[in-house]
Each structure stands twice: as C-alpha cells, then as structure tokens.
Amino acid sequence: MPHDDLTPLIEAHVRDIPDHPRPGVVFKDITPLLAAPEAFSAVVEGLTAGHGPGTVDAVVGLEARGFILGAPVALRLGAGFVPIRKAGKLPARTLGESYDLEYGSATVEMHADAIAPGSRVLIVDDVLATGGTGRAAVRLVQRAGGTVVGFSVLMELAFLSGRDKLSDVKLHALTTV
Ligand SMILES: O=P(O)(O)OC[C@H]1O[C@H](OP(=O)(O)OP(=O)(O)O)[C@H](O)[C@@H]1O
Ligand SMILES: Nc1ncnc2[nH]cnc12
Fold first, then answer.
1. What burial letters (b/e) apply to 60-98, b meaning 16+ CB within 10 Å?
2. What does the record list as coiled-coil region(s) (predicted)?
3. Considering the entire predicted model, what is its pTM?
4. Mutation test of ligand 1: which of 101, 105, 107, 164 has the most ligand atoms closer than 8 Å to its C-beta?
5. Domain CATH for 143
6. Residue 22 located in a structural domain
C-alpha cells in the first residue's frame, strides 16, 4: 500500500535533546509535532498504516506518548482505544509484562478484560528503540487473546535493533533514523 514519505515532515517537527533523560541518550522530542496540527494530522493518518475504518477492533497505545498518538488513530479507524500503562496505574485486574528500556527497565500492564478474544489490534507508539516495550505490548495483547494486525511507530531507532524483537508482527515505521 502506498504511503507518503513523512520523513521530511517528521525531521522538521521532532527535535533531538542530547543527554536526556541520562547522559549518552539523544531523546526524540515529539512535542513540536504535537503543536503543529497539520503535521500531527498527517502523522495520525500515517500511523493507520493503510488500515481502513472498521478493519481494526482496538488500537492499543503505550503510555505516555503512545496515548497521544494512538487515541486519534483509534477514532479515525472507528476502533476502541486501549491503554497499556506503567505498573500500578490501572485500577481493575491487569496482565503485566516486564522489559528493558534504552535507559532502564519497566513493567507495563493492561486491563485483563480490555481486549476481547479474537480482536484485531493495532498497536501505536512514538518511538521504537530496543523493542522491549513493543515486545511487552505484543505479549499482553496475545495473552488476552487478541491478534496483532500491525504495530505502528512514528520513529524507529534502527541502531537499537528493536525490529528484531518484533519480527513476527507487521511493523510500520513512518521514519527510521
Ligand atoms: O523500544 P524501547 O526501548 O522499549 O523504547 C521505546 C519506548 O520508550 C519510550 O517510552 P518511555 O518508557 O520513555 O515512556 P513515556 O512515553 O512515558 O516517556 C517510548 O515512548 C516507547 O514507549
Ligand atoms: N531516544 C529516545 N527518544 C525518545 N523516546 C525514546 N524511547 C526510547 N528511547 C528513546
């Protein structure tokens, strides 16, 4: 399926913040993109990855920046939105997965009843780095009985090889650095 190349637009609206949140990490700050409605809208459309309205049952967004991008994608697809949150934040019964990050480790959780068995699920996040968060999200959806029909990210940091952890899913990165 053809997509516009959003690389120039993303390069113009995502800024590098050296040494955040710790020395040696170049943080990709998407806040300028969120503040530019035309760019934000184009990115939301890109993150649908060619899925049309009614073809996806749920969009899963990963806390926190995956919420901002995933929720409008869900509305565009006429799908429900399901948050995956850092441990301890969701109020009802949860499923949890632990993983390593570029700059630390974390546990994420999803409500155990958030995905109906057999659901077609699109996962959305801003950055794919080591792939730890993404792998955890795929596991949570699969443990709930959902089928991951795609994994969309705004930006893939290829040097961290996160793609290798997601070789069994259809990964769609709007740009790769
Ligand atoms: O591929 P990985 O190495 O797992 O890293 C990618 C994840 O790291 C960032 O989230 P972070 O945990 O920093 O949370 P935030 O969005 O709340 O800042 C980013 O938004 C992805 O979710
Ligand atoms: N370098 C980075 N910038 C923004 N988000 C990230 N998540 C993991 N690594 C990141």
1. bbbbebbbbbbbbbbebbebbbbbbbeeeebeeebbbbe
2. none
3. 0.97
4. 101
5. 3.40.50.2020
6. no
Range of the domain at 123: 52-176
1, part of any domain: no
Residue 9 in any domain: the answer is: no
Total structural domains within the chain: 1
Residue nearest to atom 15 of ligand 1 (CA): 64
Residue 78 lies in a domain: yes
Are 156 and 128 spatial neighbours (Cβ–Cβ below 8 Å)? Answer: yes
**Interface pTM (ipTM) of the complex?**
0.98
